[in-house]
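User: For my dataset I need records formatted as: sequence, then structure tokens, nothing else. Please produce one.
Assistant:
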Amino acid sequence: MPSTLRPASLPDPLGPFRCLHGHLVDLFDRLSPEDWQRPVPDSEWTVKDTAAHLLDSDLRRLSFQRDGMTPPPPEEPIRSPADLTAFLNRLNADWVRASQRLSPRVIVEMTRWAGAEVVDLFESLDPEGDALFPVVWAGEERSTHRFDVAREVTEKWVHQQQIRDATERPGPESPDGPEILHVVLATFLQALPYGYRDTEAPDGTLLAIRIRGDGGGEWALRRDGDRWQLLEGRVENPDDERVPGAPAGILTTDTDTAWRVLSTRRKKASLLPNIEITGDRDLAAGFAATVAVMA
């Protein structure tokens, strides 16, 4: 392994989660009555529906994890990730349908309270303790609280960005922006080893991943025996595949493309021109095929 590479770690997600909650409430406070009814791009929801979904996530978290309430059982057994996705989609749809009875003001006031309570909950947890639910899109049967909180950072980030896209409101110009985005990308990339699980390659094969822009970084996927491992750091000797340790492929893109590609199953094709690939294009194709959300 090149000396600059090391196993990829998850940055501390607590600060970014706290900041995201503040940015979300501030965004809601600035929306006009017309903004709440705008359709969210690449979604069947409106801005109000998306905000209600985020509120539901907070309320479920408080009920199931803080208060120890047993989640209601699914109507049908869950035997696969597809079954789980279908179950979660039904829960989300039920809540969004019921939230039609709530005004935007009620949703904002409840979000202000519930989000702050979730911040307090997350700050009380042992980062290495067992999460209530595993991060299934990373192929895990057990996840740490750190990974679970990082997953919630990505959830709030993606839906907040969707609302900003729908209302043409840019992200906040604040010093914490790059740190939050870096946590989002570092978390999403944890899905790659699972996403590549059926991709065969010789032992030691490297795919270098370079994400340009504030909050980006450099990572790599390495084939170790019968599995893939996510690494972070710069791949040495990247431009000559004859040099030992050189990557079989190099994938380069920007931060905006990276988070959008990894967080959707829809309309990926429109984003592919923003991804530059040198070397083994088939190997690099798995990046765009990976989805780091339950959808």
